[in-house]
User: What shape does this take?
Amino acid sequence: MKTVLILGATSDMAQALARVCVAKGWTVQLAARNQEQLAALAGDLRVRSGQEVVQVPFDAENMRMHAAFYAGLPEKPDVVVALFGYMGDQLAVRNDPEELQRTLTVNYAGAVSILGIIANDFEERGSGTIVGVGSVAGDRGRQSNYIYGSAKAGFSTFLSGLRNRLYPSGVHVMTVKPGFCRTKMTESMDLPGALTAEPEQVAQAIVRGIEKRRDVVYTLWMWRWVMLIIRHIPEFIFKRMKL
Amino acid sequence: MRKISDWGNYPVVEAEVGGFDSVARLQEHLSEPGELIAYGNGRSYGDASLQERVLLTRRFNKFLSFDESTGTLCCQSGVLLSEILEVFVPRGWFLPVTPGTKLITVGGAIAADVHGKNHHLEGSFGQHILAMEVMRNDGSVIRCSPQENSEFMQLTVGGMGLSGVILNATFRLKRVETAYIREETVRARNLEEIMECFEASASWTYSVAWIDCLARGDDMGRSIMMRGEHATLDGLVSPAHKAAPLEPRRKPMLSVPVNFPDFALNRWTMQAFNFAYYHKCRPGLHRNVVDYNAFFYPLDAIADWNRIYGKRGFTQYQFVIPREAGREGMQHILKRITDSGLGSFLAVLKLFGEQESFISFPMAGYTLALDFPISLAAMDLFNELDAMVADYGGRLYLAKDSRMNAAMFEKTYPNAAEFKEAISLLNRGEVRFASLQSKRIGVTA
Assistant: This one.
């Protein structure tokens, strides 16, 4: 029996994860900005599990409130999964300082802030699992989404450092890289079937990773190899490619 | 724009695709003028949920309420039957009606008014709906049930998504003691025998037969009948089953990773398969206890099995003919099919019970469903079969269809004209629900 705190619980991946967790008999705490959507998900989980589901407001961008948010949880979780993210239109991010700020805060600074607070608590307790969702976009900068990608790259580096720091205290830190996923962000696009995961597959991979204490999880195995190749293309060739 | 198709991979269309996970988001979609059609999990075979603009319902998938004392479930239309089973079988509940795949949405099950192996006793899925809410083309929500707005309900159950977008539905699950089925399999040497077997199995809750549609002559119609009842706790024998009566062991999923080349399925490979499948079952009667997945959903264990038909795609020809016409009609139609040699390994025969619905497929009689790889020869054969089916007073199942013409639909569905009129009244306005199928069969312009 674990208690799992899901940050950014209104995304499709988060919803799938919450369902897999309650099916395993774990308790979930849902945190996100939109309380109405959260209530709908909480209702669904109650029907599925017959159990109470905790629902708390959380805003990744409002970093000053993060400590109070964590202190205010009715029960401290065993596992925290940060699933919030923001991918705006790359052109807008390039030209609009507010979009840029938002991209950097949600994908990097806000995530570092809340997970840092939770890491301190887990370190003191000497147990717990912290899961952060990076992105294959962070494995190499590509012209189509390098600002989002660089924030995710920074977040991945943060997670790897955190893993290094917390290893002696027995806290597990896991980085998830989902690749393409069928969510509301991508449902209108033609994605390559073999490289595209359903949110349920991502959720299953996360839960498996938590149980097996994995360090880095690519939800579809092909992505590990695809990104290995992409990472090793020499820069003088890579800069000429249209990706 | 995205390429999209239904289960038969025929036809494939370029469509503008959008989804919704809230009523407000759906209303936004319906504020854009034009034609569109709801698309659930893409398990209808033809073009019933295809169109230039497609509305994905899969993310509208929350459970809303469940009453443990009566088994009454209310859920959003994008919930899959498989999700219902996963959540409720361990708690001792089962679907009132299920088709041969659990990978369909509740909305799709109502829109196609699907049937299962228990139709002769327990009717179609739509007959179990206690209430539902549907969004009209103007964004308004209409609540309907057999008592309230019952005319609208009639147009929606089996109405192939043309009256509106189903939002949620309330229906009652059935109590089961175990997740297992007490199954009997009986081998029948020909059509005569299998039909007698159906008549003799009328009291079984579930019955269906696999039929070898390639065997000819004296062997024509040789088949294997599978009938079953939900196993009671006392009915379980294996210690493993008894230890966890409601939670059968999960079996590993197989999958077909790529499209097979077109030559992989030919007359000889399919004949070999059918021969092996038929002879694997020894003559006489066999008793078995199997988990519900093995009994109801053998093909769901193989992900993407439609790929064995390759890129050309396939269609399932499913018709029903009245019981009175049964023997002679089936003999006649099956002969035409076996003579053509075009069928494949998946052919299913079932005896339906009575059903008085406005626009649904089932009627008291025999239904036969056969898969065919798409080919010109198959299309010619279907046209011939259509004429025979119509002559015997039968009709085709819209959920499987990708090629029937308007004349056939009008001739064989007794309420076709009224349905068409009612749908055109409902579809007045800037937004209209229409699919490639509804246009082809003349229900919408």
Summary: Residues 113 and 126 of chain B are 5 Å apart (CA to CA). Chain B has a mean pLDDT of 94.
